[in-house]
Amino acid sequence: MNELLKKIHDIGIVPVIAIDDASKAVPLAKALVAGGLPAAEVTFRTAAAEDAIRAIVKEVPEMVVGAGTVLTKEQADRAIDAGVQFIVSPGFNPEITRYVIDKGMLMIPGTATAGEMEQAMAMGLDAVKFFPAEQNGGIDKLKALAGPYKTLMWMPTGGINTDNLEKYMSFPQILACGGTWMVKKDLIEGERWDEITAICKAAVKKMLGAELKHIGINTANEEEAVALAKTLCALFDWEYHPIDVSVFVGRGFEVMKFMGRGRNGHIAIAVNDIERAIFHLAHNGATFDESSRMTDEKGTKLIYLNGDFGGFDIHLARK
């Protein structure tokens, strides 16, 4: 995955903007950044698109800005000249797709069928848009296609909102989800920037799906760990499940057989995707202990945050 695709992946949600007044582009972009979504696909459905892109690129440089609904070479040229980092089309037009690729620009063409996806892959593309997502079978269709297309990433757009977002984002081949629900026309026209920020924050929370996995309790040795674990199991009729370094008690506790990380122990937080969680928690001020990162064939499966949290260390764990 190239650097730009990784950044889009880690942001996770790309607001799709149709803006009629370019003067509103910068405050809109700042509202998105404040909500944790420093990305936008500005569609060429309006006459203000090009000016809006120029303004965002100049005034909000932390934004990843793309152009959407690009149907012609002329639109592609205007978008590139305005400073976009990627281009999106609603459908798969081989001529336009090749033109954008040859310009050295990241192209994410729209696809709805396996045949279109294969043509895009034959052009060397690693990611495509899936549009309109819900009307074309949604996440169930993408999961069915994942078998033969294990290396392809999708950016579903169309019919996605806070209610169905998590079922898309929990699937590992989703690059990001595109959506308009946080940038509805009435919100932009009414300059309701705080409301847009709040919707973005709610979407990020839903996307990450963070929840308590377990609490780890440090003990001095195996004997002490076993005694504590058996006491908890006897009190609450929980399951006792020993492993090499600890004993899991029910679904909520891990009793360590040694003094592990943290003065008292650790707290494990499960998330849908650790890389996305790292990006968004960093937005909130978190830093991470890279030496603690554990990976497997699917990517990062565990990493600790830096810091002491009431005598506990915190680590993220992939669901």
Describe the protein's architecture and organization.
The chain has 319 residues and is an alpha/beta fold. It folds into two domains: 3-208, TIM Barrel (Alpha-Beta Barrel); 211-318, 2,3-Dihydroxybiphenyl 1,2-Dioxygenase, domain 1, CATH 3.10.180. Helix content is 37%, strand content 26%. It contains twelve helices and 17 strands. The protein has helices at residues 3-11, 25-34, 49-59, 73-82, 94-102, 114-122, 138-145, 165-169, 185-189, 193-208, 222-236, 274-283, and strands spanning 13-17, 39-43, 64-68, 86-88, 106-108, 110-111, 127-130, 153-156, 177-179, 211-217, 240-242, 246-249, 253-256, 265-271, 288-296, 299-305, 312-318. The strands form three sheets. Strands 11-12-13-10-14-17-16-15 form an eight-stranded mixed β-sheet. The chain has a six-stranded parallel β-sheet with strand order 5-4-3-2-1-9, sandwiched between helices. A three-stranded parallel β-sheet has the order 6-7-8, with helices on one face. Helix 2 (25-34) packs parallel to helix 10. The radius of gyration is 23 Å and the shape is elongated.
List the topology elements:
Blueprint: H1 3-11, E1 13-17, H2 25-34, E2 39-43, H3 49-59, E3 64-68, H4 73-82, E4 86-88, H5 94-102, E5 106-108, E6 110-111, H6 114-122, E7 127-130, H7 138-145, E8 153-156, H8 165-169, E9 177-179, H9 185-189, H10 193-208, E10 211-217, H11 222-236, E11 240-242, E12 246-249, E13 253-256, E14 265-271, H12 274-283, E15 288-296, E16 299-305, E17 312-318
